[in-house]
């Protein structure tokens, strides 16, 4: 990363550069060139250049993705898997090609292990409804961690209400790290499933999911990994992780909203009952009963979000061209810079100080509520999220009603961080 | 500070945020309710003591942003001695003020110091902060059980 000299008028100019900053051109991304690919970043908000630091909520879309959606609707739109005409063939090819792009992105063994959903939330609900209905009953236990997003809590609570199973919670320490010893104690003969987030949307913690999976597998327990945040920031290899399910959302990885992915091991998916019934998921229907298609179609009832799937494929190809290893290295340095910049402000308290972190900086400010921080930063052109981030148990754990959260992507620069820091100084001026 | 920010964060609002009035539990309250804004996690409890149809005492407790805390504080100042009908009229006018729909500022009750919240109308996402305490007050007057949510 190139440490720019912009923002000399802010406090961050006093943050010393480390040797690693100077060597950072090892991972150099041409961020200014990358930014040209994102039309939305070229605007001013309240008279200032937009500093978009709300990437954990959703990411911006490169021109290639916007063009792909336009192209699909202008040239190829048709229903898939049924038409003999040219447009249907094109739409089907585009849709299935995207499935193989996702397969390679996750290094899944087989494209049939890739199921398209509306997003991470629907992917987790699919597992809870389908796997859960078949395998989980009264007295059984499901393990989640204390840092889960509501979308990896509530589907399991619904399942528990329906089946009489119990939800168990792995505690975290004050830095926001999972306590593995406590996890071991929770793994018992009653455990049926572990569902855990890869990268926390509030704390930025990178969880040791490989270790978590290995320990569960020693008890014969499958593991679902919530990859909503990790897919855009960390290289993921589902075979190396040996996870049983992995879920992520297109819109958090530079693709369209309304499209997501559930990866599942083929053997598990095959013996799971369908999640929804309808067209495109059956091979034959009579009033005596239906015969279901093989995976993945068994889980894709109804006409899917075809344009969204194609857009997601284009987004993942865009990410692949830059390379997630390089993205992760660049973002790691930017996170370091941002962390040092924020910690140089005495009134800042960081929420989430794990040793292994990526892309997320949650903080509270003495004397100013996150909601007021967000309003004042917006006035300065800086977009952050404030609130509980759909993770109220994390707020309770750290004893705060809400946090302010800046979250990074590879198109962010030190100038964005400097704008954040200048905005925080403005907050302190108002509330001082 | 930019002028838009000054319009929102008026000196009087910041004063009430830092030193809220009537922020305490009212032990002998005869009406009370709890309000919650799930968007930002703000919580407020409003306690009332009525003398017939007239508000004798009013207090609040809770943690929130500058706008919601100052609004609760200034609301309690404004309510003392008013009848329930006067309170409802005041809330209607306050609501019109913060949502930018106040067509005739001369008509109806005098908003007094509450006029400092006029700047909120430029920040639609903050309207719920300014009205949380008032919605909670309404629930307390109606003796509705449970928690009032802004969502």
Question: Which helices and strands, and how do they pair?
Answer:
The complex is a heterodimer of chains A (432) and B (151).
Chain A: H1 19-22, H2 31-36, E1 44-45, E2 48-49, E3 51-52, H3 63-76, H4 86-106, E4 114-117, H5 120-135, E5 141-145, H6 154-163, E6 166-170, H7 180-186, E7 191-197, H8 209-218, E8 223-226, H9 238-241, E9 245-249, E10 260-264, H10 266-271, E11 282-286, E12 289-292, H11 306-322, H12 324-343, E13 348-351, E14 360-365, H13 370-379, E15 382-383, E16 385-387, H14 392-398, E17 403-407, H15 414-431
Parallel strand pairs in A: 3-15, 5-6, 5-7, 7-8, 8-9
Antiparallel strand pairs in A: 1-2, 4-10, 9-10, 11-12, 13-14, 14-17, 16-17
Helix pairs in contact in A: 3-11, 4-11, 5-6, 12-15, 13-15
Chain B: H1 3-8, H2 11-18, E1 31-37, E2 42-51, E3 54-63, H3 66-79, H4 84-98, H5 127-142, E4 147-149
Describe this structure in words.
The complex is a heterodimer of chains A (432) and B (151). Chain A has 15 helices and 17 strands. Chain A is globular, with a radius of gyration of 22 Å. Chain A has 2 domains: 11-53 and 323-431, Alpha-Beta Complex (Aspartate Aminotransferase, domain 1), CATH 3.90.1150.10; 65-321, Type I PLP-dependent aspartate aminotransferase-like (Major domain) (Aspartate Aminotransferase, domain 2, 3-Layer(aba) Sandwich), CATH 3.40.640.10. By secondary structure, chain A is α/β, with parallel strands linked by helices. In chain A, α5 (120-135) runs parallel beside α6 (154-163). Chain A has helices spanning 19-22, 31-36, 63-76, 86-106, 120-135, 154-163, 180-186, 209-218, 238-241, 266-271, 306-322, 324-343, 370-379, 392-398, 414-431, and strands spanning 44-45, 48-49, 51-52, 114-117, 141-145, 166-170, 191-197, 223-226, 245-249, 260-264, 282-286, 289-292, 348-351, 360-365, 382-383, 385-387, 403-407. In chain A, strands 4-10-9-8-7-5-6 form a 7-stranded mixed beta sheet, sandwiched between helices. In chain A, strands 13-14-17-16 form a 4-stranded antiparallel beta sheet, covered by helices on one side. The longest helix of chain A is centred in the N-terminal third of the chain and has 21 residues, at 86-106. Chain B has 151 residues and is an alpha+beta fold. Chain B has one domain (3-142): Sufe protein. Chain: A. Chain B is built from 5 helices and 4 strands. Chain B has a 4-stranded mixed beta sheet, with helices on one face. Chain B is globular, with a radius of gyration of 14 Å. The chains are: A alpha/beta (432), B alpha+beta (151). The A-B interface holds A 46, 368-372, 375-376, 379, 386-388, 392, 395, 401-402, 426, 429-431 and B 1-2, 4-5, 8-9, 14, 17, 38-43, 63-67, 69, 123, 125-126, 129.
